[in-house]
Amino acid sequence: MATAKRLHTIPPRLSPIGPRVWLDHPDQNLEAPINRSLDTIGFLVDTAVHFKSLLAYVEHRYYGESIPFGDEAFTNASTLGYFNSAKAIADYAEIIIDIKKTFQAENAPVIVIGGSYGGMLASWLRLKYPHIALGALASSAPVLYFDDITPQDGFYSIVSKGFREASETCYQTIRKSWDVIDEVASKPDGLSELSERFNTCA
């Protein structure tokens, strides 16, 4: 049984039988609960209106109010064993089936959408459950960013190449800055100093 307790839907616009559009999470960041106005998510809402679709936002298990086992959820390996991507996409598959039954739209196509980790889940759901999701839109999803597939420095190499092509001076300045940042970070209060200098989130 699915463990996601929080599900927010934005009703179909004008037609109850249009395609159903599903999104992992409004922030495209599944490491957070559903807790804000979802009607303001431009691209998705605009697209849903155009296709007369229903949007469903599903909270990932072990986040927000979707925490199984209550207070014991994070206390031992046996309960944490249910906190993984395979279980999450199984939740989503079950929820999608239930939504389609609820709206009597069993034949309506489903598109799953997400960004970053949510995009990975959307891609994997489409691969594992092609009979449930017609398609997936994955934005900035590192689906191949694993050992023996993509070099661990792959992202940094590509970004460095981009800076170098734009400006060799800029590239050299940024490259040299990392040595200084590492040196400051190694001091006893170095991370606090960097946080203060760069005004980072605390």
Automatic annotation (TrEMBL):
- Enumerate the InterPro entries for this protein: AB_hydrolase_fold, Peptidase_S28
Biological process annotations from GO = proteolysis
Q: Does the keyword Hydrolase apply?
A: yes
Any single Pfam family the record assigns to this protein: Peptidase_S28
Q: Do the record's keywords include Metal-binding? A: no
Q: What one GO molecular function would you report for this record?
A: dipeptidyl-peptidase activity
UniProt keyword terms in alphabetical order = Carboxypeptidase, Glycoprotein, Hydrolase, Protease, Signal
PANTHER family, per database record: LYSOSOMAL PRO-X CARBOXYPEPTIDASE-LIKE ISOFORM X1 (PTHR11010:SF96), PROTEASE S28 PRO-X CARBOXYPEPTIDASE-RELATED (PTHR11010)
Sequence similarity: Belongs to the peptidase S28 family.
Query: By what name is this protein known?
Result: PROTEASE S28 PRO-X CARBOXYPEPTIDASE-RELATED
